[in-house]
């Protein structure tokens, strides 16, 4: 197994999958700390970009994925270095090893192209986001996503009067056409916005008054809302998608295990005080009803 250590974490390649594990110390970008780790099938890699270091700048290694496989670029098309989970940087003393690692990846990608491998882009995208449910905290309130529903709750000290009066708003994933995410720029707030099917949004819409938005002020919640935006995007489906095939026994077993995994994750959030007793009970009941 080939391994490459960089400033933000470690990449491992076993011939089929690149495992990206990020460091947890403070100098690691907040997005990568929130993400923890992810896996990328080599068949999902469109190209490998390696840039040697120059003067004081170190080397850079970036993966470009096949269309629709990267949910982060879908909501953040022009990422800065601290918001690109598929970028690894390192110092000059490890440049030769990094170049060799990049060459190994390029050879593997070329082999997959020759074989005509075509992975499911949606499945790849879901493998790049954390396990559900997710919660994002901002100065305006919080967002919650469990794979079926997105809920915004405006109970923070920077929530507008209108949002404070509204308190909460929920959106079924089936009703969401797309997700938008904006980083805070100068005096403009950042936000996560869900766009329902048939809705019309404009650049002039005020996110702080928009009930489809969860806003960020400063760095608080910025990485968490980006991860949530990517996670929602990864779980969206076209409205006219064909009906799902019949469920087999194996599919049923996998679905049951997934439900139990989500209940355990809900329990962890409840134990940490991130979900109220009522919220935990409601979501647990909804999941158990699917068994």
TrEMBL record:
Residues 261-288 form the SHOCT domain. Pfam families: DUF4429, SHOCT. Residues 11-105, 145-233 form the DUF4429 domain. InterPro entries: DUF4429, SHOCT. This is Uncharacterized protein. It comes from Lipingzhangella halophila. The lineage of its organism: Bacteria, Bacillati, Actinomycetota, Actinomycetes, Streptosporangiales.
């Amino acid at each position: 197994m080939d391994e490459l250590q960089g400033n933000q974490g470690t990449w491992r390649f076993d011939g089929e999958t690149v495992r990206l594990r990020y460091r947890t110390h403070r100098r690691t970008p907040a997005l990568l700390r929130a993400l923890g780790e992810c896996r990328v099938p080599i068949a999902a890699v469109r190209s490998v970009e390696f840039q040697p270091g120059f003067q004081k700048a170190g080397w850079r290694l970036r993966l470009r994925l096949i269309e629709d496989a990267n949910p982060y670029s879908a909501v953040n098309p022009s990422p800065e270095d601290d918001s690109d989970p598929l970028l690894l940087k390192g110092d000059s003393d490890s440049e030769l090893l990094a170049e060799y690692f990049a060459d190994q990846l390029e050879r593997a990608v070329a082999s997959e192209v020759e074989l005509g491998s075509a992975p499911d882009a949606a499945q790849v995208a879901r493998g790049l986001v954390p396990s559900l449910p997710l919660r994002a905290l901002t100065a305006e309130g919080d967002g919650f996503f469990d794979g079926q529903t997105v809920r915004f709750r405006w109970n923070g000290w920077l929530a507008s009067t209108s949002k404070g009066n509204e308190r909460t708003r929920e959106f079924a994933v089936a009703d969401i056409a797309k997700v938008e995410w904006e980083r805070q720029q100068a005096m403009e707030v950042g936000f996560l916005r869900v766009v329902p099917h048939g809705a019309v949004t404009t650049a002039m819409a005020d996110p702080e008054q928009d009930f489809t938005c969860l806003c960020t002020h400063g760095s608080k919640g910025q990485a968490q809302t980006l991860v949530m935006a990517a996670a929602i995007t990864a779980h969206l489906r076209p409205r006219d998608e064909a009906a799902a095939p019949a469920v087999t026994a194996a599919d049923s077993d996998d679905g049951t295990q997934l439900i139990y995994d989500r209940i355990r994750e809900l329990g962890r959030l409840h134990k940490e005080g991130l979900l109220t007793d009522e919220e935990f009970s409601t979501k647990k009941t909804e999941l158990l009803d699917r068994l």
